Every structure is written in structure tokens, then in C-alpha cells.
Amino acid sequence: MTDPKTYHVKSYGCQMNVYDGERMAELMAAQGLTASDDPNAADLVVLNTCHIREKATEKVYSEIGRLRKDGRAPMIAVAGCVAQAEGEEIIRRAKVDVVVGPQAYHNLPQLVADAAKGAASLDTDMPAIAKFGALPARRKVGPTAFLTVQEGCDKFCTYCVVPYTRGAEVSRGFDALVDEAKALVDAGAREITLLGQNVNAWSDGDRGLEHLIVALDEIAGLERIRYTTSHPNDMTQGLIDAHRDVEKLMPFLHLPVQAGSDRVLKAMNRSHSRDSYLRILERVRAARPDIALSGDFIVGFPGETDAEFEETLSLVEQVRYAQCFSFKYSPRPGTPAAEMVDDFIPDEVASERLQRLQAALNAHQLAFNEATVGKSCDVLIERKGRHAGQMIGKSPWLQSVHLETDAQVGEMVAVEIVSAGPNSLGGVARVKAAA
Ligand code: SAH
Ligand code: SF4
Ligand code: F3S
Questions:
Q1: pLDDT of residue 430
Q2: Using an 8 Å Cβ cutoff, are 1 and 43 in contact?
Q3: pLDDT, tens digit, for every residue of 155-165?
Q4: What is the per-residue pLDDT for 250?
Q5: Residue 296: nearest ligand to its CA?
Q6: Quick one: pLDDT at residue 431?
Q7: Per-residue pLDDT averaged across 153-177, rounded?
Q8: Residue 39 contacts by C-beta under 8 Å, 6 or more apart in sequence?
Q9: Could you tell me if 90 and 192 lie in one domain?
Q10: 390 and which of 92, 277, 365, 385 could share a cystine (Cβ 3.0–4.6 Å)?
Q11: Is 231 close to ligand 2, i.e. is its CB under 6 Å away?
Q12: Which residue has the CA at smallest separation from atom 4 of ligand 2?
């Protein structure tokens, strides 16, 4: 195999993977490779994988099969959480050239060079956060950018692979993050979303995430700050207060609860109760009454009874989320819940529960969207719409807003919301907001 000239990075899974995918692309570009939009034409395809549910993992193997179809033989690098979880098993199961874990991808150029000599190469080491110092500087980004501030998880929810694929909780240093945020703004970002598997567990000495948010608030040219994903146990009063005090911090909080029954939460090892979770939301709403709340749910966790599932529905009725993600429980090898085979819920039961939950969540999402009709807000333009002159941006509450405007991508437009659907809003541009 010869050295690749063109590359294509395909990311699956969470936003942290999207961030890692961007960093790997920058790394390849710094090596002199050219980006290719077409995975079927690139010499090197990096599959940046997700292991969170079984379906996510199976996608990888079918994608490798597709890339190898018609006798094409690109170099294939498997990165991300499947790489970490399955390691050499991937090389045994499929024809791939490189396997690189999420904490080792700064070594990708060397691994690619080794693979070009013939044998498959693998690196799934987990040095604490070494990669960030070894990556090239940020150059060009869109109006919205991700910034990973924290990685890993110490919570060990019994269903979840993340503590195994991403390792222990580690925070990047305050100064390096402020520098990277400034570089992102210089490169075109107007909104930064701080990322971490437990982003609100971020700390540097006695500084918590709210201190980092305050520092970013002072960066000229940055208009909006968001963060995700938070864990209820790390939701400090300081961070809650930031939603009242920091102007650029957007009124949106993704705070997964997973289930509404205390027995299930305990079996999940969630270390918060239904009540303690609801009390946090009360404090958040007191600090920022218009905040949009978001969450994640798992239905059909081993042993979940009908009555326990009803408690999830009643929690959802109580909170009235602006948007949510919900999943059927998927047993993951190596996790404690995957051992509870005697208590597995039949798929038909889980599917029916998921349908009922999603019907409720969708109704609330529509109601939340409808409640914004008549309001005025800033919309950050992110991309062109389908029709000429139509642009699509985001409201402060993370809703997609479609509008006719001559404003360009990256501009902030003052908009009146005039219509609402389940997944987006319609707006009318007022005057352009002052930059
Ligand atoms: N760190 C975040 C998100 C982790 S993964 C948190 O603590 O909430 C994103 C979501 O995937 C989780 O919130 C959970 O709802 C879902 N998830 C994780 N493992 C799962 C599994 N084995 N089966 C189904 N859904 C799962
Ligand atoms: Fe997974 Fe739980 Fe950690 Fe979230 S907090 S990443 S669900 S173990
Ligand atoms: Fe998936 Fe890994 Fe993210 S398992 S959700 S890519 S942390």
C-alpha cells in the first residue's frame, strides 16, 4: 500500500466524536493530505465510531463492507469508541489498516505511515489528555464550533460503555481552553459549545465550569456559549447562577435523567433520585425562567415494570421538556446491566414503551415551539435553506428557525417567530442585530 494522498473522516455518535473528527481532519491536512467529500474516492477513510448502542457498533462493520465493495481498497482507519472497546478484535473481524482509540489519535499520522508499509497498526493507549498538546492549531471553522473541555466518565451507570471507552474523568487546563476558544473565534466561530461526557464536572483547581464560561463571556466576537452533556450530580449552584448572570450563556440545558422510577435509577447506578433531579430543575428554572430543558431516556432497562415506566411518563409530564433523546435499552458487553439477562424486557414491550414516551416528548416539543410564536429573538444563521433567499439558523433555545433574509452564514439576525412545527420555527427578519 502506498501513502494516502486524500482523506475522508466520517464521525458517528456524540458531539465529542464530531470534535475529534474535526481534529483528526486538521491533523491529516497538516500532513499534506487533501480532504475528499466522497468516502468512495478517498485514499484514507477514517471511521470515527460510536459504541453506545448495538446498532451504532454494527454500522461500522457494514460501512467497512461498503467501502471494500467493487474491489476498491482504500486505507481504512477505525477510530473512536468501537476502536477502544474492541481493539484487535476489529482487525480479526474486518480488513482494516489502522485502529486508534479516542485518547491516541494524535498518533494517527505515524499509524498511517506504518500501515502504508503493510501491516495493520493499532494504538488504544489512554495517556491522560496528552493528545491536545500534540494537535495542530485550529484554523477555519463555521459559525458554531465545538470545544472539548473534559473527557471521560467516573459515574459507571450500569448500562453504559463510556467509562470504558473514554476512560476516567479528566479536565483540560483553563488557560489552554481560553486560548483555543480565542483561536476558534479568530477562525470564524460566533458560538462555542463546550463539550464533555460530563461537561459540568470540568474543573481546574478551585475553578468550576462557570468560571470558564465567565472567561469565555469576555471574548470579543463570541456571541453565544453552550455546554453539553451535564450530569445532575455536578450541577452546582454556581453553574445554575451563571444561567442568570452570564449574558452569552444560552437558555438551554441538556440534563439527562434516564428514568422516572427511583428503583430503576438505583439499578442504573444513577446516584440521583427522581426528586433530587426535579429539585435541580426547579433551581435552574428559578435562575432562568425561559430555559429550554432537554434530556435523555432509556426505556426497557432490565426489570423495568409497567408501573415503573409510568413513572417515567409522569416525570416527563411534570418537566415538559423542550426536546429529548430516547432509546431502547441496548445490552453492552462488559457492562453490569448486560449480566441481568433474566430481567431483560421483551423487545415488543420496550418498543411500545418507546413509542408512548416519544409521543409524549413530541407533544411537549411542539408545545414548547408553539409557545415561542410571537416572541422576538436573535437567530444565528448557520446555513442556506432549500429555497433561494431562505436561511436556517438557531434560536437561543436551540430551535431551528427558517427565514427569508439576505444575511449570510455567521450573521446574527433579529427575528420575530411567526410559526412553529414539531422540529422547526418560521421567522421574519426584523433589522440586523448590531454585530
Ligand atoms: N454522559 C451523558 C451521555 C452519555 S451517552 C450522560 O450521562 O447522560 C448518551 C445517551 O445514550 C445516554 O444519556 C443514554 O440515554 C443513552 N445510552 C447510554 N447507554 C445506553 C445503552 N446501553 N442502551 C441504550 N441507551 C443508552
Ligand atoms: Fe454513561 Fe452514565 Fe457516564 Fe453518562 S454518566 S457517560 S450515561 S456512565
Ligand atoms: Fe458514542 Fe463514544 Fe460518544 S460511545 S456517544 S462516541 S463517547
A1: 85
A2: no
A3: 999 999 999 99
A4: 98
A5: 1
A6: 65
A7: 96
A8: 8, 10, 45, 67, 74
A9: no
A10: 385
A11: yes
A12: 197
